Amino acid sequence: MKMRLILLFLVFFSPISFAKIPPRLFPSSFDDQLSSKGKLSCETNYFTQILDHFNYNNPQTFQQRYLLNDKYWGGSKNNAPIFVYTGNEGNIEWFTQNTGFMFEIARHFNALLVFIEHRFYGKSIPYGGDKTIAYSNKTTLGYLSSTQALADYATLIIDLKNNLTAIDSPVVVFGGSYGGMLAAWFRLKYPHVTIGALASSAPILNFGNITSPYSFNNIITQDFKGESENCYKVIKGSWKQIEDMAKTKDGLEKLRKSFRICKNYISQGALENWLYTAFVYTAMTDYPTPSNFLNPLPAYPVKQMCKAIDDPKSGKDTFEKIYGAANVYYNYTGNATCFDLNDHSDPHGLAGWTWQACTEMVMPTDGNNKESIFPPSKWDYNERAQFCKSNFGVEPRPNWVTTEFGGYNIERVLKRFGSNIIFFNGLRDPWSGAGVLKDISKSIVAIVAKEGAHHVDLRWSSKEDPKWLKQVREREVNIISNWFSQYYQSLNEIY
Amino acid sequence: MKMRLILLFLVFFSPISFAKIPPRLFPSSFDDQLSSKGKLSCETNYFTQILDHFNYNNPQTFQQRYLLNDKYWGGSKNNAPIFVYTGNEGNIEWFTQNTGFMFEIARHFNALLVFIEHRFYGKSIPYGGDKTIAYSNKTTLGYLSSTQALADYATLIIDLKNNLTAIDSPVVVFGGSYGGMLAAWFRLKYPHVTIGALASSAPILNFGNITSPYSFNNIITQDFKGESENCYKVIKGSWKQIEDMAKTKDGLEKLRKSFRICKNYISQGALENWLYTAFVYTAMTDYPTPSNFLNPLPAYPVKQMCKAIDDPKSGKDTFEKIYGAANVYYNYTGNATCFDLNDHSDPHGLAGWTWQACTEMVMPTDGNNKESIFPPSKWDYNERAQFCKSNFGVEPRPNWVTTEFGGYNIERVLKRFGSNIIFFNGLRDPWSGAGVLKDISKSIVAIVAKEGAHHVDLRWSSKEDPKWLKQVREREVNIISNWFSQYYQSLNEIY
């Protein structure tokens, strides 16, 4: 298998492959979807943001989008709280819609809801909103970085509080995945702007050599192996069979037919990536209830994939079994007639991650040991560097994130520094191996759910949610309540 | 009096005025001076530093100078500590030589000493070390900022520790004045690089409207008033007399003669600035023992100035009295024959501060109320903005420092966040009004010396040091010892 950059949400190495399923673009249907569920809609706002916070020679600005919902807000006179989502690498509507937890607890806390879009994503595109210019080269893309994004959030929040005359309203930041990393880092770097952070499934330790590069795929392996030994063995054995088949005469055409790939394009690498994507994201979103985050999925989709593989009806044909599994991820709705390996659409606007992965977000996840469900491979930094050089003309800075944000010996460093961070991780999530899994101090705590997947705690709740998930959310609410108690008490203290 | 930018060390508005006293350049005489006192010398090193840490489109680097002394170091095998001085706005030799405290306690702690020069100062000039280019315009100067400087320090320290295989050696940062601000901010932003900071006379609250713009000159007023009411009155009254005299025929020439100004240049504003400089820096360096930081000065120079003013021998001539006071600051050695108001020399290489004051370091210090020893005036941001616009073509960002580093409600923010910072302030120091003067938490503490001046604690000790100063240093050593105890204990803890 070829090297690929793994997005926090999306396998992102050429070729990218999406199934031909009904479009899941949110911008048009966002409010409808929220209100159709009897839930909340947001007001869209734009803030004139500084393009370069760290250099004064550049007076350029851009329009940064943020969504606002004040239905439950207790108002500035009561110093009622503000919940801010620190947007990740995509359209903010997408993350807003998938962070029902904030809406659901806003009523309890009388909180204002703010979802800030990350620069260079969604509608928050510098250079007059022109994505073609903004993404054209390393000079324009140079302003796309986590450090600038955090400074954006600080600047916007302070300005918003001033405008609302809500100076003393406490701010709590929330984020999942890369957004969770940003939330945790935001609390660490801007404690004067936020009193606490809920960092859900934030792999802040997936840098340098803190976390093994085998960890990510090991967890995926365990997810499938845990369902059934046979399921694991079939998937593990399939790669060699695909490789062998691809080498034979008409082998690619046979593979195309086996996997219902559309006629326009087939290659061994593309097929492998397409399958890899399905396994990775199914493991990541192995939620206990049906979901529609990346694709529409049933509850416990890993189990469903293994069911398809273990199904006696699928006979002994490995490709048929693997196709059945892929079908769970790519075609749960049953509408697809064929799968387009040549579909480079990007419905959530995630393209900027390639740049981020080529500069600071060098997260080694690509290793596969002997037991891996994927073919053995080593994490190879040079491969990444080469890709980035030829794609953008940049050399990654693999040590920058640990220099700027730390990570090594995090327990020792934060044991007596900082406070008020919740690190949630679900152990079925491949990213969880690079999360904070143990309490660091009394107020920098880890909540670990053995059965949980990627930021499952932030999803809209459901009656079908298992008990452990309800308990996780309850604990999060309690901790956040304590932050507020402490904060409001401190407002009355005289210094 | 005209608006002026106040450097942490130097009045820095045109015209700058220095006395014709023997040169005090350190680069040539630095090692000699240290060794002549039987003290320590340093090894000069250069580190290839990234010019822009926050943008990846720019692969440029520059040579950053740092001084190293390992005479007392206990070595990496013992995880012996590293003391780092976070350099301020000038040649690093100058700060090194004036931070004897680090040398003196290094033996006790078996510490390695590292003094890092701030980018754009001394020999740490980007653009191939060419100051003419580096300082030529806002594009090149754009990289001169505190945020970049802090990232420099993090990058250099991590690299140095790697090279010394001293990964587990704890780092404590020290700094005075702007260097003290950097030290405090460094601990807050980079807790993974340093275990604690001694921030001496760091006016981190002199931003936005946290500290009154009258505070600075109020303290100077008090310093002189505290010595003698007459002294205060004479100085306070002198400005009007100078103004009146300047308006008369031959008035400027009379003033020139009264103040022994050289023939080449005289103007009312330049004379006023020259006197203002003397009062400000004498108040700042009102040390209990003779010093040679800015100019050679006697012990308690404010007292000496007032003595000159109150001296019955100086008769009733205000100018003669004020001249006597200025002479304490400008001519303690007695070598000056006349004072050159047209001398724009910059022996410590502080010129970059004008840029910093025009971008982020907007520190309101210029207000004078009715009681001020200086003529009444209001802090006027627009005046600053205009100056910066015409000088550099930039608009200051007066809210940036509080956005990036905080400051408002610092007690509330840091009471449960962060640890291990000592804020030292001497209350005779005009900057002390913008310092942290009360303990914030158990380990973010304020040490306040009523009789102290600008970072007096960091100076070389002397047998003549008063008891309170010895006690301040003792307390600092004890606190730092505790940081180490905690740190070494945590090395043995298993997570």
Question: Can you give a write-up of this model?
Answer:
- Chains A, B: InterPro entries: AB_hydrolase_fold, Peptidase_S28, Ser_carbopepase_S28_SKS.
- Chains A, B: One of its GO terms (biological process) is proteolysis.
- The structure is a homodimer of 495-residue chains.
- Chain A has helices at residues 26-36, 92-97, 100-109, 131-134, 138-141, 146-163, 178-189, 215-227, 229-247, 251-258, 268-284, 301-310, 318-330, 352-357, 381-392, 400-405, 410-414, 467-492, and strands at residues 18-19, 43-50, 61-69, 82-86, 112-116, 171-176, 196-200, 291-292, 296-297, 339-340, 421-426, 444-449.
- Chain A is an alpha/beta fold and 495 residues long.
- In chain A, strand 8 and strand 9 form a beta hairpin.
- The longest helix of chain A has 26 residues, at 467-492.
Task: Sum this structure up briefly.
Chain A has 495 residues and is α/β, with parallel strands linked by helices.
Radius of gyration of chain A: 22 Å
Beta percentage of chain A is: 5-15%
Helix/strand order of chain A: EHEEEHHEHHHEHEHHHHEEHHEHHHHEEH
Total number of helical segments of chain A?
18
For the largest interface, the chains and their residue counts are: A-B, 59 and 60 residues
Any chance you could write out the topology, listing elements then pairs?
The structure is a homodimer of 495-residue chains.
Chain A: E1 18-19, H1 26-36, E2 43-50, E3 61-69, E4 82-86, H2 92-97, H3 100-109, E5 112-116, H4 131-134, H5 138-141, H6 146-163, E6 171-176, H7 178-189, E7 196-200, H8 215-227, H9 229-247, H10 251-258, H11 268-284, E8 291-292, E9 296-297, H12 301-310, H13 318-330, E10 339-340, H14 352-357, H15 381-392, H16 400-405, H17 410-414, E11 421-426, E12 444-449, H18 467-492
Parallel strand pairs in A: 4-5, 4-6, 6-7, 7-11, 11-12
Antiparallel strand pairs in A: 1-10, 2-3, 3-5, 8-9
